[in-house]
Amino acid sequence: VAIVGGIEGVAIVGGIENVAIVGGIEGADIVASIENVAIVAGTENVAIVGGIENVAIVGGIENVAIVAGIEDAAIVGGIEDAAIVGGIENVAIVGGIEDAAIVGGIEGVAIVGGIEDAAIVGGIEGVATVGGIEAVPIVGGIENVAIVGGIEDVAIVGGIEKVAIVGGIEGADIVGGIEGVAIVGGIEDAAIVG
Questions:
Q1: Residue 6 class from Cβ within 10 Å (0-12 exposed, 13-18 middle, 19+ buried)?
Q2: Model confidence over 141-189: pLDDT tens digits?
Q3: What is the rounded CA–CA span in Å between residue 90 and residue 158?
Q4: How far apart are alpha carbons 38 and 44 in whole angstroms?
Q5: Which residues pair with 147 in a beta bridge?
Q6: Partners of 62 in beta bridges
Q7: How many CB atoms lie within 10 A of CB 131?
């Protein structure tokens, strides 16, 4: 384990293997076994409360809680008040997200625009949404879906495969297990709960 930055008020409460913390961390709790995790930016008030494997957090993070097993997930943007509360595998979030909750299984879906308070709640296959969306509920299973425009008031509440969130998201809920998802942008008040 390499801790390479100033750390204040940090509790590491589980077995850790090959973890690199490369930025200043303040008030962070790491409360589970962690393997091959790299935290490469300034982090404040972050709690990592589950088994994590091969996770890279590469942006400034404030008040973020990661509360479940995560495998091969990359968080590559600024995150504020985000909660990741479920098992996540190969997930990338690639845009600014504010007040978003990810609360279901997601695999192979791409959300490539700003999203605010949108609800996607069902099975969808091969769907591309390429424009601004406001307060839209999508109510079914989702597979290989691309959302490529601004979205407001969106909730994603079902199993999703291969999902990429590549834009700003505000007040969105993604509620299930997530696989192959990339979160690559600033996130504020986001919850990933599957």
A1: exposed
A2: 444 444 444 444 444 444 444 444 444 455 555 544 444 444 444 444 4
A3: 17
A4: 15
A5: 111, 129
A6: 44, 80
A7: 10
